[in-house]
Design a protein that fits this description.
- The structure is a homodimer.
- By secondary structure, chain A is an alpha+beta fold.
- Chain A has two domains: about 110 residues, 60s Ribosomal Protein L30, Chain: A, CATH 3.30.1330; about 170 residues, PurM-like C-terminal domain (Phosphoribosyl-aminoimidazole Synthetase, Chain A, domain 2, Alpha-Beta Complex).
- Helices cover about 30% and strands about 25% of the residues of chain A.
- Chain A contains ten helices and 14 strands.
- A seven-stranded mixed beta sheet of chain A has the order 9-11-8-12-10-13-14.
- The relative contact order of chain A is 0.17.
- At the A-B interface, helix 2, strand 1, strand 2, strand 5 and helix 5 of A face helix 2, strand 1, strand 2, strand 5 and helix 5 of B.
Chain lengths: ~375, ~375
């Protein structure tokens, strides 16, 4: 029974989510919030499935997509919201203002919706220098212009010195679902090719190195950018054969694939050797003992395409500026349901699980 | 020249805002952000007009309404966003979860739009107890149900202990503009009656007293509630004769009237004796040396109605639960432009200016 059926009780609706995910929902048993609840891994999943969804249950949330949807006369809208608490607020390749625009625009774009507008709500720390604020507002304006969205509403709050770190930003994005798009985790089919729009791990690694906690210097810049051009190219090339898209932000490609495997009941098999990783990122990741597949991206997407159109979709993707390194990295299978497997560069096969803990806190 | 004219440069568009407000825009010259930039008074105005608007300039923002608007095929949407940083997170009559729903729903409602959906983005402090979080999520769910909106998208971030205070919440609300509504500060006309939907100052005073910083006990509860029923009743009773609505939150009735006077180039004259103030609020305000007209409300609206329909509008408002004390508190005039005057209970007349500083920080 669909959760949309009239007269369904809250319990039936929750049960429906369970059945749709084809696995037991994570329970939330922790006594306190820890950093790992914000990391996009196992603890985040238990918070969302065990506490937030049952309390706020409705179809849009239950679909667990990157954006909620609203149907109006004549138009279907995608809406997504995100808070940004990245520290430091400036890092090679970007800053919180740019990230706040692109992060939300991208959640809308991978839902198959052309981003139209965003709202911007700031929590500023008392004592923040006006020049730093001005730089971030200018960064918001530039990123919004580049992404083709207007900032249509805003809010500003100030908290005392020591509360909030310079600034937090919350953006909500609004887009109109493209008529070519029929995207959903439930659309994944065995045999679908998994495309990745470029090299992984740059954003998370750039922010980590900007903290100067490691005696490590490397020329790594955040990949923050709008993904609508990539999404648009894929919709044009693959149409209804494009089954799903997702931007692998917090928790990286590994977490995004796990979420989709869980939501679809399918499995994903990745060929590690085919995943593009910049040499500097690979080197830094090895020194820090972090798998680049778990490191956040802010300008990359995963696309799931029926085998017959995968080649054309990959070619279209590679023609988009910033996606020249796009690659076919694996495929969807029926077994084992809900899991992600990776064929390693050394010829082995291992499970790529959800993150436990939070090796890279405050990355976005 | 309208800012919507094609080919207008950014400078022309900024100039247009200036002309529309019929007064010089506030300049932003402060070197640092202070608490007063978040108080909704003079410093907030200079931040918005001097920094945010020029950088992010577009028509929706320039209108300075409580919500931005987006026109789609067949529907006009109102969208509003707000961050909530109230401390403590629970207070008599409400809590941050309820506030985050109603505050945003009300910004949509006073724009003349029926609230449909909200998004919820949380910044949680590491160490927050799960039971406190659960209570707030339940409060969000209850308030959303009472307001008739669904929570359609969400996000959760966690920051280290000591950063953020228990939790911050950012909500964005979406509504469909009611076909009966033609509301805007520019719609204010000399002679319009100013209606207030009930007694003022309860929310701000309840939060202040909940901090236990004053040895003052009083039975004051926040007035947080959805204002759509009140807005709906006014639209039904006054139609196009309802010229503008505004919810007087941060900075209270005085700040909301000043914003509207400035945006419309009109003046507002208020009769202090006609403004309903609960006796406990009046007593606490007097002891703390704060004018209740500057204290935040979270369940009250101001409505500007043409004289011929003001009586019917007031009667309709008083029939709405929670608005029994609604009153006609003054009227709009042409002179002096951009100012708010108050006839005091003692027979004098004084200027009711924008707040300087922030006597009531972190109230929402």
């Amino acid at each position: 029974m669909s959760a949309a059926a009239n007269g369904a009780t809250r319990e039936e609706r929750v049960l429906d989510i369970v059945q749709r995910t084809r696995s037991r929902p994570a329970r939330f048993r922790d006594a306190q919030i820890t950093m790992s609840h914000g990391a996009g891994g196992k603890a985040s999943q238990s918070l969302i499935e065990g506490l937030l969804l049952p309390a706020l249950c409705n179809d849009a949330l239950a679909a667990l997509g990157d954006a909620g949807t609203v149907a109006l006369d004549g138009a279907a809208l995608a809406i997504s919201t995100d808070s940004f608490v990245v520290t430091p607020i400036r890092f090679p390749g970007g800053s919180i203002g740019e990230l706040a625009v692109n992060g939300t625009v991208n959640d809308v774009a991978v839902s198959g919706a052309r981003p139209l507008a965003i709202t911007l709500s700031l929590v500023l720390e008392e004592g923040l220098s006006s020049s730093e604020l001005r730089e971030e507002i200018d960064a918001v304006a530039r990123a919004a212009q580049a992404a083709g969205v207007q900032v249509i509403a805003g809010d500003t709050k100030v908290v005392e010195r020591g509360h909030a770190d310079a600034m937090y930003a919350c953006t909500t994005g609004l887009g109109v679902i493209d008529p070519r798009a029929r995207l959903s985790p439930a659309g994944l089919r065995p045999g679908d090719h998994i495309l990745l729009s470029g090299s992984v791990g740059e954003h998370g690694m750039a922010v980590m190195l900007a903290r100067n906690e490691f005696s490590l210097e490397a020329d790594i810049r955040s990949d923050t950018r709008s993904l609508w051009p990539a999404a648009d190219a894929l919709l044009a090339a693959a149409g209804r054969d494009l089954h799903c898209m997702r931007d692998p932000t917090r928790g990286g490609v590994a977490s995004a694939l796990n979420e989709l495997a869980r939501a679809s009941g399918m499995s994903a098999l990745i060929r590690e050797a085919d995943v593009p990783v910049d040499a500097a990122v690979a080197g830094a990741a090895e020194l820090l003992g972090i798998d680049p597949l778990y490191v956040a991206n802010e300008g990359k997407l995963l696309a799931f395409v029926a085998p017959g159109r995968a080649g054309a979709a990959l070619a279209a993707l590679r023609a988009v500026p910033g996606c020249e390194q796009a690659a076919d990295i694996g495929e969807v299978a029926q077994e084992p349901p809900g899991m992600v497997l990776v064929d390693t560069a050394f010829g082995g096969r291992r499970v790529l699980d959800l993150l436990a803990g939070d090796p890279l806190p405050r990355i976005c």
